[in-house]
Structures are given as C-alpha cells and as structure tokens.
Amino acid sequence: MLYAAVAAGSFRRYATYRIATASGVFTNTVFGFILAYTYIALWTERPHLGGYDLPQALTFVWTGQALLAATGLLIGGGMDELQERIRSGDIAVDLYRPADLQLWWLAADLGRAAFQLLGRGLVPMAVGTLVFPSALPASPVTWLLFLVSVALGVVVGFALRYLVALTSFWLLDGAGVSMVAGLMCLFFSGMVLPLNVFPGGFGEVVRLLPWSSMLQVPADVLLGVHEGVGAARALAFQAGWAVVLLASGRLVQSVATRKVVVQGG
Amino acid sequence: MRSGTGDTVRGPEEAGAVSHDPEESGAVGRGPSGGEPGFIELDGVEKVFHVRRKAGRLRRVREEVRAVDGISFRVPRGAMVGYIGPNGAGKSTTVKMLTGILVPSGGRLRVAGIDPARERTRLARRVGVVFGQRTTLWWDLPLRDSYELVRRMYRIPEAAYRRNLERCVELLDLEKLLPVPVRQLSLGQRMRGDIAAALLHDPEVLYLDEPTIGLDVISKAKVRGFLREVNAERGTTVLLTTHDLTDIEQLCRRVMVIDHGRLVYDGGLDGLHAVGRSERTLVVDLERELPPIEGVPGARTVKVEGPRQWLAFPAAQSAAPVVSAVAERYPLVDLSVREPDIEDVISRMYADNTAP
Question: Min CA distance, A73 vs chain B (Å)?
Fold first, then answer.
C-alpha cells in the first residue's frame, strides 16, 4: 500500500541520519539529567506535587525525553520541509500526483516518529531508569496502552504541525507562527512541568487542550494514573482531538489548494 | 475571448517559407486523420491572476495580471511539440493548467477529453510531468526507492513496471545510480532520474518543463535521444517547454511561441526563423585591420573590432556562399558561425506583433 511505503521510506530516511540520531540521544540524556535534578529539588521541597511521588515525577521526566523527538515536542512549531515546499512552490509537484497530501505527510510523519521513538527514545529512557528511581509499570497491558497513547499523541502532534505548516500558503514566512506554536507546545504538552501541578481553572483548561495528548496523557497512562475506564477515557480524549485536528487540517488544506489552484499562489 | 488562431497567431504560410499547415507539421509519427480532435485542446484559454500592489503607505491596489491571454491550439496524439517563449511569457502557467493544478479563468481546455481542473487525479494517472527545476524524487533515499513509491502511487502492474524501469535504466544509463541517494546525484543524473520517474506509469502525454536546463552536453544528448525514442516507439504525446533552441531543433517539427500570454507563432521551426527575420552571424578574423567588408551578397557587416568583423545574414540562408565570398577577396585567418538567439527572434516577433 502506498502510504505504508511512504511511512517505511520515511523511517529508513531518518535511519540514515546516524550522527544526528547519536547527538540527539546525547542531548536528550543531558537534558533529562538537568530536568531530573530540578524535579528532585522540587519534589523534595513539595512531596506529592500534582499527585506524583518522586519516582513518578522522575519517570515523567524520562518519558518526556523519550517522546521528545517522536511526538515532536521540540519541533512543535511546524514542518520545515512542508513549509519550504509551499514557500518554494514545489508543492505544485505534490498536488498533481494521484495521492492525498495530508495522508502522505501523515504517513511520512508516522515513519519518522517510529524511528525516533526507537532511535532517540529508548536509550535516554533506559539511562534515566538505571540512574534514578523510577515508577515503570510491570503490567504488559499498561505498556500496550502506553504505546497506543503514544501513537495517538504522534497523530495529534502531526495534525497540529500540519495546520501550522499550512499557514505558509497565506504567510510568506511561517517562522513567526512556528515559533509561537512551538512555545505553546513546549508549555501545554507538560514538557516544562507536568500539567497536573497547575491548580484551579487554569489547570483544568490546560489539561483539556490538544497539546496534553502529546506528553501528559501518555505519561499518565504509563504511570497508571489512568486505569481501566480511565485509560479508555484518556485514549478517547486523544482520539477525539486527533479526529478534530485532522479534519480541520483537511478543511484548511482544501481552502489552501483552492486558493493556489484559482489564484496561483 | 479571442479565437487565437486568426489574427494574432502567425503561421509559416504567412511568412511564405514553409508550405505545410501547422497542424500537420506537428504530427510526428501518426498524422492527424481528417477531423480527429486534438489530444490536447485549448480554446481561448485565459488565466488571470490578481495581485495586490503597494500604492502608497497603506493603500493597496488590486492589479490584474493576464498570464495567459486567450490561447488556442490543438496537439494531435503522438505529436512532439515545442512550446517556447521568454521568461514570464506564460509557459509554466499553461503547463500547470494542463495538469489541473491551476484552473483557467476562461476558455475551454481538454486533455484526452478530460477537463484537468475537474478531474486532476484521474488525469494524473495518464500524464507524466517533469519540472526541470523541481524534483519528484525522494531526497534522502536511493533512486530505486522513489521508483517503488511511484509504482505504488500509480498502481503500476508489476510486469509493466519492471519492463518500463528496465527500459529507462538502459536508455538513460541509470544502472549505477539506482542505489544512490538522490541528494548525491549530479543535476544531470537527477534530471534523468526524474524523467524516468515520469514515464514509469506509461503516460499518454508527457509535459516537460525545461528538461535540459543546466545539463552538460552529454546529458542533454542522452535526454534528447531518450525523448525521441519514447515519442517514436510509444507514440507518447510530448509538450516540451524550453529555452534551448537546440532541443526544439532536434526534437520537434512544430513549435509554438508564446509571449505576454499570447500565442504569437505556431508552425515549423524554419518558418519561425523567417517570421522572426532571424539572422546568423559569421565572425571572421582577418590578417589585419581592414575597413568593413563590403559586397558580400545577402550579408552585411554589423561590427568591426580590430581585425575581427561580424557579418549578419538571414538564418534560412546557407553560410557557404557568404564564407566563400569573404575568403575570395579577404585575407581570412579564422571564422565561426553563430546561431540566432531564440530570445532575439521572439522579441523581434513580438515587436512586429504589437505594431499596427
């Protein structure tokens, strides 16, 4: 099938960047250590902050590092490649092919994420678990649910970045939008601090935003915060955002291509 | 909307140089059987863009740009036609409308009986496109992977795929390149790779937008040889956009010239030279500085620089009598002949066209 081949090709493509992968692993690990010590300081001062004990907080840190590249927490701003193709007009080549633009890029992004989960995620997670106390689950069911949750998180991340990238059809330079979107993603995904430490109405709201699907929800599934019906509800929450965002992407895409087709971009 | 064929387009018959009708001259291989509809048909096709232009500190003026301004032509199945014109003439816009990426603002356009803008995807399966400046290949992966993707995208049956790939590999000399990541290919290699990618699904029509741009002589020859073969053997209809007049000379018997969005010429290449009053230049190096050469029939001296002189003569005329006339009466050391520049020919044609 075409899109499976696109995903596989994308996986192989990222696998060719060996030095980038190695330096990414190193960066993730160092970044993880810094965050881990910060969290240790914080949770020692305020035990059970956000309902996590210290091992859970540390596992949250390393889950974040493992998902950083895969769900695109740091590249939350956009899709450089797609934006560049729109800007340069190469998108014309993509449009005349008998393939769906969004599905094509989604497949490519899933391939990328799969490689990065393995290539850039496993090592920092393993190092972090060996060096610091951790709260990893023993149940294979929890791990399975976690993987489904990560996959949904990847799709939500893609759908958000796709929307950002499509703004290039209207803006000559998408850098500004990308930066704002990147910062929002960094904060609202829980990358800076777990979203459950935010109290009151603000906390309620940030936990309902789509970005929480990219880290907070998968981490909570792994930590066993969501169990049974709770886990199902968490996955449904992610799937809901995935559908809404992909559908918006489709809508914006059809407006954008109509604009190009009629006006010539 | 204008009809396009009448007053604006000048065929060779007007120039009196070529006798055949432009429709016929375009048909390489199969001739148009009487009244057969064109495979590609354009009737008064227009494309108008609206751009906003700054006209003061805050004021923006909406301006109309007529990129394609009423073009009509027919290309029969199996023809190989050159489509030329200066930058910004509307060539690429036309190709984009033919692929369905752009919707015409007016007129009627059909490719194989299909309205491209309406049924872009259905048509895409029957069309191959090569944009010389853009690539459809996957940058970081071996060339072979891109072809596998094309196979899936166009759902090419295994046997046809293998046969076509083998053929392209042989004729375009791609064997050694298949395992090489596209980013490591030279421009000429990449272009050959792109042309192969556009032909794997047996398209009935091939649009080539500057397929030889930036290529070295050997690569150009390879690409041209391949295109000639594809056209002759499979009867693939080819529309070739180029800056390189040699492409046209070697491949197309019919050429269409577009300028400022209008078709200004449609006919044989010789007729184009006659219409454009194009001239070749004979550059001669004499033994010493001499006054401008005179008395050479059909030629006139246009420039003198020390012992070197430039003589212009009509492109349709043979260089031999000019050379012998000069050699007979002047101490000739060396000489060369320069071919006319397509841009000059076209700009002269356009100047004529706008004059009342």
Answer: 24
User: How near does any CA of chain B get to the CA of A99, in Å?
Assistant: 7
Cβ–Cβ under 8 Å, residues B303 and B332: no
Judge: A264–B145 Cβ closer than 8 Å, yes or no.
no
- Yes or no: say if A165 and A83 are a contact pair by the CB < 8 Å rule: yes
ipTM of the prediction: 0.81
Taking CB atoms and an 8 Å cut-off, how many pairs form between chains A and B? 65
Closest CA to B242 of B115, B346, B137: B346
Residue A264 is assigned to a structural domain of this protein: no
Is A115 a member of any domain?
A: yes
Number of structural domains, chain A? 1
Q: Do A97 and B134 touch (CB under 8 A)?
A: no
Residue A149: which domain range?
2-259
What's the pLDDT at B36? 54
Mean per-residue pLDDT for B251-278? 83
Measured between beta carbons, the chain B residues lying within 8 angstroms of A13 are 138, 140-141
CB neighbourhood size of A129 (10 A): 15
Residue A265 lies in a domain: no
Record: contact A264-B47, CB cut-off 8 A? yes
pLDDT of residue B22: 42
Q: pLDDT by residue (tens digit) across A16-38? A: 889 999 999 999 999 999 999 99
Mean pLDDT of the region B61-75: 89
Residue B108 backbone dihedrals phi, psi, to 5 degrees: -125, 140
Residue A112 in domain: yes
For residue A99, what is the nearest residue in chain B, using CA coordinates?
Answer: B153
